[in-house]
Design a protein that fits this description.
single chain; 315 residues; UDP-N-acetylmuramoyl-L-alanine:D-glutamate ligase; 10-stranded mixed β-sheet; 4-stranded mixed β-sheet; 16 strands; ATP-binding
Length: 315
């Protein structure tokens, strides 16, 4: 069973548009409304795979109530922490050529009592869990050390923890030794303080995160594939994708696939790549079901192509 923690969840509205023209009336060709936030997406992908998950998240106001209803409709057990502020609403505009524009609201500010209740709820619901996946940005009121505290508490309880966040929160948590961290290329570059131009640059950055305390690093490199770096070595995984409909939640789907497959080693990386590739073929933030996966298209190798330029280098 996998518990997910989403400190800053959202109500996500995704509109598919032919193209985005600033200052003009744009008519959507499709729309979706989903419960959002990185941890929520991980739970949705786990549930789509038929596995057990509990989503711990603070919810408030009418948007929060709608998020709870949407989770229930998808068969996901939620452990809501009531907060005074309203849950944020986000908008994503997905163009026909695959370009995505996101507008993310800041979210409510959590009081000290709400923060502690969130931690206590995680403690209660993670008893007997295989993994805790902590994902996304921190809402106002939570210090960058909040994730670090959660990592320490998880290890005290004997539960493995995966972390998908960035910036000061990631750097603070590394010192507590999370079992897995899942940055993308931009987050890797930010963490090490330098640009990434090649897969080799990303590999070196991932190795540095391990040196700072991460047990393993699962790095998403967009269209170029994914890297897994742990104590036993490094692997590179990729899969061809002909058409990208939306990359919303693709990284979250990858993390879910990784944890579903055990959370370590090349087989888990292959599952992560298969889930990520399937997610980008789907509209909005739809999470892939097993029938959407194409494991045979995935390639995983210990021969990391260090000289390969990144399709989207990080300056």
């Amino acid at each position: 069973m996998i518990v997910t923690v989403t400190p800053n969840p959202s109500l996500d509205r995704t509109y598919e548009v032919p193209s985005l023209e600033r200052g003009e009336v744009v008519r959507a060709t499709g729309e979706r409304m989903d419960p959002g936030g990185k941890g929520v997406n991980v739970s949705r992908a786990i549930a789509a795979a038929g596995r057990s998950t509990v989503a711990v998240l603070p919810l408030g106001g009418a948007p929060g109530a709608l998020v709870a209803d949407l989770l229930d409709a998808q068969g996901i057990e939620a452990a809501p922490v009531p907060v005074a502020g309203a849950t944020r609403s986000n908008i994503a505009l997905a163009e026909a050529d695959g370009v995505l524009t996101k507008i993310n609201a800041p979210g409510p500010e959590l009081t000290a009592a709400e923060q502690e209740l969130l931690l206590e709820t995680v403690r209660q619901r993670s008893r007997g869990a295989d993994w805790i996946a902590c994902c996304g940005s921190l809402p106002r009121g939570l210090a960058p050390s909040w994730y670090a505290d959660l990592v320490a508490r998880a290890h005290t309880a004997g539960v493995r923890i995966a972390l998908d966040t960035s910036g000061p929160a990631l750097l603070a948590a590394l010192r507590r030794g999370p079992d897995v961290v899942k940055p993308n290329a931009e987050e890797l570059a930010e963490a090490v303080g330098r640009p990434l131009a090649t897969v080799g640059d990303a590999l070196k950055a991932a190795e540095e995160l391990r040196g700072l305390g991460a047990g393993a690093v699962l790095a998403s490199l967009g269209a170029d594939g994914q890297l897994l770096v742990d104590a036993t070595g490094a692997w590179f995984g990729s899969a061809p994708v002909d058409t990208v409909r939306s990359n919303v939640g693709a990284g979250d789907s990858s993390l879910a696939g990784f944890l579903i497959a055990g959370g370590s080693g090349p087989d888990a990386l292959a599952s992560a790549v298969a889930h990520g590739a399937a997610a980008v073929r789907l509209p909005g933030s739809v999470m892939p079901a097993p029938t959407d996966l194409d494991p045979a298209a995935v390639t995983v190798t210990p021969q990391v192509p260090v000289d390969r330029p990144l399709t989207e280098p990080v300056p």
